[in-house]
Amino acid sequence: MATHSESHAEHPHFHAPSHWEWSTAPTLIVLGIFFSIPLAFAGHFVYHNSLMTSVFAGLGVPVLLWGISQWVSEGINSPESHHHGLSKVGLPIFIVSEVWIFIGLFSAYWALRLMAAQWPPDGTPHIGTNLPIIMTILLVSSSATIHVAEEKLEEGDVGGMKTWLILTLLLGTVFLGCTLTEYSKLIGEGFVPSTNAYSTAFFSITGFHASHVLVGLVTFLCVLIPALSGKTNKTFLACASVYWHFVDIVWFFVVSQIYFW
After folding, report:
1. How far apart are CA 106 and CA 177, in angstroms?
2. What share of the chain is helix, strand, coil (3-state, %, to 5)?
3. pLDDT digits (tens, 9 = 90+) for 125-165
4. How far is residue 46's CA from residue 147's CA, in Å, rounded to a whole number?
């Protein structure tokens, strides 16, 4: 009969869990999103009730921030071996679910585009392609910088990782600023989501992508802030990086379909 030490030697990667791992962070985040987005939006856009909007937003935002802070704390402070295996499963599932949402949006756009007698419809101002090209360069550059940040952390160069992570944040922020600048210009010309079918598709798809850029930037901040006090986690950064690369890839579909087709 094999002894415990012999069994461990034969299966060095097996670790019997001493307790169940659990967290309230996912529940808090879901509740925060539920209160601050669908319910608050319904209060403002559907019921036109300022009190309802303020109550739900006032409840949702603090709960959402609480959940995010708890998630970050657990991700940074827990040993990587505790969640490395789960991240390999959880992140791909999350990415696949996001892919299907974007496929739904693009399918609606293709249906509108192919069935329209005229595209873009009347009422659509000229939307240039210079800014989208600049935004593409910014986003591709940010994918390169976050990759370098990962490599620096692998090499044990925490200072270098922070530098390249900050550069990624700056590039992503400028990209988001370009989106807001374009929105401001178009809205100033009277081109709003309700103008025509193209405007609805334009603001829905670019806005949904911009929201993912914002989430990515917040995630990078969640990695950077603990790193400033010396707390880093390779798996945590890798997950944020994979998400950012996904956002970058989706942008190629956005820019090619919305601006050039």
Report:
1. 24
2. 80, 0, 20
3. 999 999 999 999 999 999 999 999 999 999 999 999 999 99
4. 43
Sole residue written with tokens 């911009």: 210
Which residue, among 184, 176, 179, has the nearest Cα to 244 in the 3D structure? Answer: 176
Long-range contacts of 208-215 (CB under 8 A, 24+ apart): 208/101, 208/102, 208/105, 209/247, 209/250, 209/251, 209/254, 210/176, 210/179, 212/98, 212/247, 212/250, 213/172, 213/175, 213/176, 213/179, 213/247, 214/176, 215/243
Which of 163, 137, 135 lies closest to 149 in space, CA to CA? Answer: 163
| pLDDT for residue 14 is more than 60 | no
Q: Which of helix, strand or coil describes residue 122? A: coil
**Nearest residue to 113 (alpha-carbon basis) of 200, 183, 48:** 200
Query: Does residue 189 sit in helix, strand or coil?
Result: coil
Listed residue (131, 132, 111, 112) closest to 121, CA to CA: 112
Residue 9 Cα to chain centre, angstroms: 42
Q: Which residue has the tokens 């390169």?
A: 144
According to DSSP, residue 126 is labeled P
State the virtual CA torsion across 19, 25, 31, 33 in degrees, nearest 10: -140
Give the number of other CB atoms < 10 A from CB of residue 109. 21
Q: By C-alpha distance, which of 98, 65, 97, 102 is closest to 218?
A: 65
How far CA 44 is from CA of 35, 39, 40, 93, 191, in Å, comes to 13, 9, 6, 32, 21
Question: Model confidence over 204-215: pLDDT tens digits?
Answer: 999 999 999 999
Q: Specify the DSSP class assigned to residue 30.
A: H
